[in-house]
Specification:
Layout: H1 2-52, H2 58-63, H3 67-73, H4 75-78, H5 113-116, H6 124-132, H7 134-137, H8 151-163
Helix pairs in contact: 3-8, 6-8
The protein binds heme C.
Heme C binds near residues 111, 131, 142 and 157.
Length: about 170
C-alpha cells in the first residue's frame, strides 16, 4: 500500500511541475513575442510615414518637368477641369489658382466629404501624391481618374498648374 501512495504522490508532483513549468515557459515565450511584435509595428509606422511625405526632393523632381509638357499632359484633365482664368467648374472644380489654395477650397463647387475634410493646401508634395494615385492619397474622394504614373508628367502638370495662377510660386 505504501508503495502505491508513493506512486500517486510522485505522479501528482510530476503533473504539478509539468503544468507549472509549461506556464512559466509559455509566459516567457509569449512575453518576448509580444515585445518583438510591438517593436516591429513601431518601426514600420515610422518608415512608411517618412517615405510617404517628406522624401520628395522638390528641386530634382520639378527639374524633370516642363510647362509645355504639362500643357499637353493636362489634356487628360480637360475632360473634367477648366484651367483658364474665370473658367467654370465642370465635373471637377475649376483649377485656375489651385496651387496653394486649400483642398476643397472653392465655395461654388460641391466637393466630396473626404476632400472637404482633408484640411491641407495644394503644395507641390500634396499635388504630386494626389496626382500619382488620387484614390489612395485622399480616400473616398470622387475624382474618377486613375493617376499619372510617370514622374515627368506629374512634375510638368504641377508646373503648368502653378503657371495658371494670379501669383505663380517661385519654384526651385
Ligand atoms: C473624370 C474626371 C476627372 C479627371 C480626368 C481629372 N479630375 Fe481632378 N477632380 C475631379 C473631381 C470630380 C474632383 C473633385 C473631387 C472631390 O470632391 O472629391 C477633382 C479634384 C481635383 C483637384 C482638387 C481641387 C480642389 O479644389 O481641391 C485637383 C488639384 C485635381 N482634381 C487635378 C486634376 C489633374 C491635374 C488632372 C489631370 C492629370 C485631373 N484632376 C483629372 C475629376 C477629374
Amino acid at each position: 500500500m505504501g508503495y502505491e501512495i508513493q506512486k500517486i504522490f510522485t505522479a501528482i508532483l510530476v503533473v504539478f511541475l509539468f503544468v507549472f513549468g509549461i506556464g512559466k515557459i509559455s509566459d516567457f515565450v509569449f512575453k518576448t513575442e509580444k515585445n518583438v511584435v510591438s517593436y516591429k509595428v513601431e518601426v514600420e509606422e515610422k518608415t512608411s510615414e517618412s517615405s510617404q511625405k517628406s522624401d520628395l526632393d522638390i528641386e530634382a523632381f520639378l527639374a524633370m518637368g516642363t510647362v509645355d509638357h504639362g500643357k499637353s499632359t493636362f489634356k487628360k484633365c480637360k475632360a473634367c477641369h477648366s484651367i483658364n482664368k474665370g473658367g467654370k467648374n465642370n465635373i471637377g472644380p475649376a483649377l485656375y489658382n489651385v496651387m496653394v489654395r486649400n483642398a476643397g477650397g472653392l465655395t461654388d463647387y460641391k466637393y466630396s466629404k473626404s476632400l472637404l475634410a482633408y484640411g491641407k493646401k495644394w503644395t507641390v508634395e500634396e499635388l504630386n501624391g494626389f496626382l500619382k494615385k488620387p484614390s489612395t492619397w485622399i480616400k473616398g474622394n470622387k475624382m474618377g481618374f486613375a493617376g499619372l504614373k510617370n514622374e515627368k508628367d506629374r512634375a510638368s502638370v504641377i508646373l503648368y498648374l502653378n503657371q495658371n495662377s494670379d501669383n505663380p510660386l517661385q519654384l526651385p
